[in-house]
Write a structure and sequence with these properties.
4-stranded antiparallel sheet, alpha/beta, 294 residues
């Protein structure tokens, strides 16, 4: 079975989407529509901007979303997903590609999500750290012993888990992780503590926007980050999206469940190849590929 996976924040690069814009009339039309919806020319930053400009949260999240969704749409009849999933932000791309959300509504929600997360990041000093070489259970147990807010945030693949929370708590957790046998525990260059209780103000803000948005039944099951299992009910999809900002991304479990449900080929749609690498570590028997505009 064919599974399509969509990357999240961090996959951006200077010049992203320019080839799509130049090669496809449909892509050009969608990019220009995005400029109108956002109220600024995000294409100028994507195609010609600096890495620093692309790192701004209000730019990064819509940029990665646009690259993924527009690429999926330009694949035309070649895009026949039997299941989809997205990593964090990528879940919005997956939902639009699978027809659960319109392009316009998806972009508006992603933009609101980015701005709400940025605001939440400014309330309390917070960060994330990658922990390498420990079992998930050990990471969970260590987090539970630390004073302050620090929680598992991204279950990326076996032996790679990202933790998130208050800066001081994350720093203490990194020391404890190394003492517990981690190969590495390093603070990540991110704006704040995504997928942790620190994002509660953003969750509340985004919840109001999601509740007002119309969701449809997707053309195939969506393996959402929160349950890590197949979802097709629009009401369930909405609730999982609302919870997602303060809950961990269960990517390892999602891929395992997709394989158990018959996925044999995972095609990454969007910038970069991070998800292909993670899938190979989670399910070495699965095939991986990158979506390419023909």
């Amino acid at each position: 079975m064919k599974a399509y996976v969509f990357p999240g924040q961090g996959a951006q690069f200077t010049g992203m989407g320019k080839d799509l814009y130049e090669k496809s009339g449909q892509a050009k039309e969608l990019f220009e529509k995005a400029n109108e919806i956002l109220g600024f020319r995000i294409t100028d930053i994507m195609f010609e901007g600096t890495a620093e400009q692309l790192k701004e949260t209000k730019v990064t999240q819509p940029a990665v979303f646009l690259h993924s969704v527009i690429l999926a749409k330009t694949l035309g009849s070649d895009f026949k997903p039997e299941m989809v999933a997205g990593h964090s932000l990528g879940e919005f791309s997956a939902l639009v590609a699978a027809g659960a959300l319109t392009f316009e509504d998806g972009l508006k929600l992603v933009s609101q999500r980015a701005l709400a997360m940025q605001k939440a990041c400014e309330i309390t000093p917070s960060t994330m750290a990658a922990v390498l070489g420990l079992d998930d259970k050990v990471v969970e147990d260590v987090c539970a012993t630390i004073d302050g807010v620090v929680v598992p945030a991204n279950y990326n693949c076996p032996g790679q888990l990202v933790i998130s929370g208050e800066t001081t708590a994350v720093e203490k957790a990194c020391i404890a992780m190394k003492e517990a046998g981690a190969k590495r525990a390093l603070i990540l260059p991110v704006g704040g503590a995504f997928h942790s209780p620190m994002m509660e103000p953003a969750r509340e803000e985004l919840a109001a926007a999601i509740e007002k948005t119309t969701f449809s039944t997707p053309v195939c099951p969506v393996y959402q980050n929160v349950p890590a299992s197949a979802v097709t009910n629009p009401d369930e999809i909405k609730q999982n999206l609302i919870i997602q900002l303060t809950a961990p991304v269960k990517w390892t479990q999602s891929v395992q469940n997709m394989v158990a449900d018959g996925a044999t080929l995972f095609t990454e749609v969007g910038p970069g190849n991070v998800l292909q690498g993670l899938v190979k570590k989670i399910a070495p028997e699965a095939q991986t590929a990158a979506a390419v505009l023909s």
